[in-house]
Amino acid sequence: MTPDAAARRVVVTGLGCVTPLGLDVASSWKAALAGTCGIVSMPDCDDRLPSRIAAPVVGEFDVGDLHPKERRRYDRAILLALAAAREAMADACLAGAADLDRVGVAIGSGIGGIGTLLANHRTYLEKGPRRVSPFFIPMTLANMPSGVVAIRHGLRGPNLCHVTACASAAHSVGEAARAIRSGEVDAMLAGGTEAAINDLVLAGFGSMQALSKRNDEPERASRPFDADRDGFVLGEGAGVLVLESEEHARARGAHIHAELAGYAASSDAAQLAAPDVESGGAIRSMRGALADAGLEPEAVGHINAHATSTPAGDVVEVESIRRVFGEHADGIAVSATKGMTGHLLGAAGAVEAIFSVKALQDGLLPPTINLDRPDPACVLDHVDGKARAADVRVALSNSFGFGGVNAALVFRKWEA
Known about the structure:
single chain; alpha/beta; two-stranded antiparallel sheet; 13 helices; 33% helix; 19% strand; globular
């Protein structure tokens, strides 16, 4: 680490996403502020599944001049990442403005190319081993979205993939920021992607009793912090942020969206799939991110909560927030956007980070929908039902995942 690494500030200069709410940042953010829900019935699902609803990306998203033959080879998770990265690169105006030996990629995924895996397994069973695609193995690998983005944009810095379940994207963003602070790189494309809506995944999560069974009213199924919540809803999408050192961004005249001021990761080291407030993993990640940013808890005005809408998870997060922020917890506006997007798994942390940056920029906080009967165990200042205008200076975004992994990101409003 260089001597001035501790003073090196990391800023956000590009944003890109593809979500169940829209095919880019502008449409996704507009829909989020309107309280739009992207969760729908999945009529082609096996009718034996206990949960037959999901939040898919709808429509043709822009992957650029990718040849149709090449596009057919790529797993959907790769294509989503390409579209999000393309938008982020364009937003940052990074092409031709940086030494690409010093620009890296860190795009995580919780599950990777499971669609490709299942398709080739069917081919093997029905047509034999000679018909299995030679692209099957590489297109299934979780690191391939990051690899393909690097290839498409000629980014020759570190090429990374963090596979940490639902914290994958947040870890990717945070570790990318550390690489910039260390002086190893000038900029990173960081985020996550996921495309895992299929019967097998729905069956697996269903067997864990993790999914909402509110099949008759999908738009009301994901209910963060609500007393009647019964599980999360599976979604898909991708989010990518361009991060740069402040020095590099200023030198090339880049537009700065916000500062990524703090990051920390931790482990519960307690249970495989259940959150555990007593282990303090979520608490340590939030406190660590604030310490990394050099901020007191009272500086935070907004939290984009992990809030998956599971009975146990939401309570543990609220308890953790209260332990970190004490009396100030009641003065923090809390949004839980998974009520609209569903749970994007390995992409969730990046999309929610983008929403946090947009909230700081626009002075508008996205709502938590379906919070009709707040759980008495989940009392906070929820942004309930509709967006709220607020001049927030610091926002925190939480991401937690199976294996007891935790990540927290702290963003600060940019004021040149």
